[in-house]
Amino acid sequence: MKEIIHFLMKGWLKSKYIFLFPIAMGLLVCILLGINSTQSGATKNELQETFDNREETVRLLISSMLTKDRVIGLTPDERESLDILLVKEEHIKEILAKINEGDLQIAQQQLAYINEYETYTATTKFIPYLNQDTLKFERLMAEHLLEYDLPYTEQITPYKTALFTKQLFQIFFSPITIFMLLLVFCFKYMADKEKWLFDFFKINSLSNTSIYYGYLVPLLSIVFMYILIASILSFLPPLLTGNVNTIFYPLEVAVGSEMILVPVWKWLVFIPIGWGIFVSFLLLITICLFKQQANLGVLFFVISMLVFISYMISLKTGFQIGNPIHLIASYEPHLLTSNRFVLYLLGMLLLLIISSIIAYVIIRTKNIKFTVPQLNTTKKQYRSTQKFKLLQFEHLKKNRKGHILFTIILLFGMIGGVVIAVNEQYQTFPDKALKAIESYQNQIIQDQAHWKMVAEEFELEQALQQQMAEQAGEEMEILDQNPFQLMIKQLENRYDAVESLKGEINSPDFSETFRKVMKSLEPGSYKDSESTSTLTDMASEEQQMILEDKGITPWPLGHKWVSNFHDPSRAVDNDHFKRLKLFQEQNTKYDNSSLFTVYKFMDWNMMLFVLLLFVLLLWTTIAEERSPNPTINFLATKPIRLTSVYITKWLYNFVIAGSLLLISSAIVFLVAILIGGFGEANYPILIYARERIEEHFFLSTADNAYFYFESLAALLVKSGILIIAQIYFLNSLFSFIGKVMKNHYAAIIVTFLIVITGYMVGNYYIELASSFYNPFVYFDTWNVIDGWKSIEANNGRVNFISGTVILFISGSFLFVIGLLFRRRMAS
To answer: Where are the domains of the chain?
Structure first.
């Protein structure tokens, strides 16, 4: 076994490609560090905005009380409140001064401010303007930072701190890197198998145990070296800048209806160890399958099924202490909020040792066979049939190069990744609901404080007018009730109603309860309103009526369907952005059904990446035959016209792309059904329109746009048709460029440049009349299907039908031009 390990390690270290990994990793660290350093400052801006608002509120309260003191005087309790407000103002000034200097070590001043606020709220006369839950969490945060002498630091784009290390860990030690490393290992094994390396080892009287453990040990060594290099590179920024103590920086983790603070170091310990153990599990399985002579497809199928089963068990039964899937997923609330992760890692390490013993027995024993006969079959000699010889020829070339299998694996990874992303968002639904509730409560409290100050000013004005009337010897009618008190009372009721939702977050009926509560806080129907209604309000109400008529359960979270007109990106100022962002968070839709997953796949415009994947890895052109293997000379010597070769390649690209996409999508779709069910095909989806075509269209005068509804199933069918048109056009473009150019890779690059440029230009100048004829505009699949492109282009002709026709016509035109194009053959 030592000889094999030495032989393999020597061969791998001689390869120039193995040294590209640390270089690429270091380059990634530098790029991410550079990006974060230019964008860092979100936490500082957030703190500054928070305390600016608090300073403004405190000054308004002080001004109101000083005015009252000049007019009618203050009671002792009010005088005490004024003194506390003045002290709080000084603390806020100190905090803002430090923030303006770039010093975020403000925990001590913030604690002093919080203490004064709590004293202030304990007096008999006060106007509370902060959420008690938020204040409690701020206190815990400040106390933790003060304990370790830490400043506030950037969390969204961390820079030079342990939070940056955590961000890198989540990139380097992710399921994606596991997938890629396993893919590299498998291709290396297949390459060695093709070179008869195993027969060479057996000729030298080496046993199966020596051979396969000789492979396992170097692979594990590479994994551990990868972990070591990635950890060192990730820790370099905080080490070189002296910010190692930021490993104690606390981060928020939602557990039920409560936010818990967890220090960063728990992630930094758990992630690389857990990732390494999980990869070791997969390598043991891989080596056992190598011994069974499993081909690459079967190998990935078996491993994927085992991981999928573990993931399904986690979804259906919750956290299980014996399930290894928690090494790379769903570990934060269950393990990191306590010290259970230490016992869990020890348990998984023990399980790994037991699995190693079992794997040793399987590799050592000659009689154990888990394979079906097909796994041990050798490659069959190619025999062409009478029909479709050229198509078979193209398929054989791509298949023997591994392009088809590699494309299938990446397609499964991409589409399956969307399934997992959608499901993970659905699983964290309670956390998002809690944050939405607390954000809404903070907004209520700010509004409440505003109207309380207005009520105070009204009472003061009433008292002043009464005093002036008494001095003039006149009688004055005094209102029995402050008219602003009713609004304050409504806000208090609204706060209490939303507060009651926190206890229902983990209940199965929470979504319905949340919608009912939020709907009860909204005004009546837009039809009864005298003012013009926005498209969001109108569409939300009309959609709700359709859902009730058809008996369809709405997707959680909120009772509104937030239209693109209310997207935060369309905000006019920062305050407007905050309102729109809060509105969006309260109404973001979540589900984990198959149809919802496909909807998100289209909404995220993943098809563009899939099509570029086909161009990069799978599709073929005549240029591929010119270099580096001039098989075009072989084709030219046969009674086959180059026109037939061109048509065959075009047809092969179209058929293979459609087939692989259909097969992989169908299988992943079935997986999504197992996770979240089929979904509701008749779910009504909002469709935008620039002009009214039919009577059932609604008009929003506020947004100057029409809208109507179509079923989700109908829209997904339209998406499929548009995708076929996209494949048709892109295939014709790629085939034409491949006919014109000499080099296949140059054809790929040129195709990419044309597609990206056409897409960017078409969307940047979207309002031009010529954008209607730009086929690249219609690659934004879902925005074309739901009609939003017509709104952006201010042109009703930019729609699904036009896009499909233009893509097919332009694709046919490119195909014919490529067919007629003649290029002189090289001698």
So the answer is: 42-147, 158-371, 594-682+711-820
What residues does 700 pair with on adjacent strands? 705
Q: Which residues pair with 323 in a beta bridge?
A: none
φ, ψ of residue 95 in degrees (nearest 5): -65, -50
Q: What is the DSSP track for 337-386?
A: TTTHHHHHHHHHHHHHHHHHHHHHHHHH-SS-----GGGGPPPPPP---S
Helix (H) or strand (E) holding 25: helix 20-39
Give the separation between CA 251 and CA 46, rounded to whole angstroms: 16
Structural Rg of the chain based on CA atoms: 33
Q: Across residues 187-215, what is the average pLDDT?
A: 68
Q: 810: pLDDT confidence band, cut at 50, 70 and 90?
A: very high
Element (H, E) at 296: helix 296-317
Bridge partner residues of 686 (DSSP): 709
Mean pLDDT of the 496-510 span = 80
The three-state secondary structure class of 160 is coil
DSSP H or E run through 261:
strand 258-263
Q: DSSP code of 102?
A: T
263 preceded by a cis bond (ω within 30 of 0): no
92 in Cβ contact with 58 (< 8 Å) = yes
Q: Give, for 252, the enclosing helix (H) or strand (E).
A: strand 250-255
Report the relative pairing of strands 684-689 and 698-700 from DSSP bridges. unpaired
Q: What is the dihedral of CA 232, 235, 237, 238, to 10 degrees?
A: -150
DSSP, residue by residue, 585-642:
HHH-----SHHHHHHHHHHTTHHHHHHHHIIIII---HHHHHSSS-HHHHHHHTT--H
At residue 394's C-alpha, the angle toward residues 392 and 396, to 5°, is 65
Amino acid at 748: I
pTM (predicted TM-score): 0.77
Q: Does the CA dihedral 563-564-569-575 come out positive or negative?
A: negative
CA-angle at 83, arms to 79 and 84, nearest 5°: 115
What pLDDT does residue 823 have? 61
Tens of pLDDT, residue by residue over 154-180, are 888 898 899 999 999 999 998 888 888
Q: What is the DSSP string of 676-735?
A: H----TT-EEEEEESS--STT-EEETTTTEEEEEEEHHHHHHHHHHHHHHHHHHHHHHHH
Residue 250 backbone dihedrals phi, psi, to 5 degrees: -85, 140
Q: Which long-range contacts (CB under 8 A, 24 or more apart) does 498-507 make?
A: 498/437, 498/440, 498/441, 498/444, 499/441, 501/433, 501/437, 502/257, 502/434, 502/437, 503/257, 505/256, 505/257, 505/430, 505/433, 505/434, 506/256, 506/257, 506/430
288: enclosing H helix or E strand: helix 264-291
- Other residues' Cβ atoms within 10 Å of the Cβ of residue 396: 12
Whole-number Å distance between alpha carbons of 405 and 624:
19
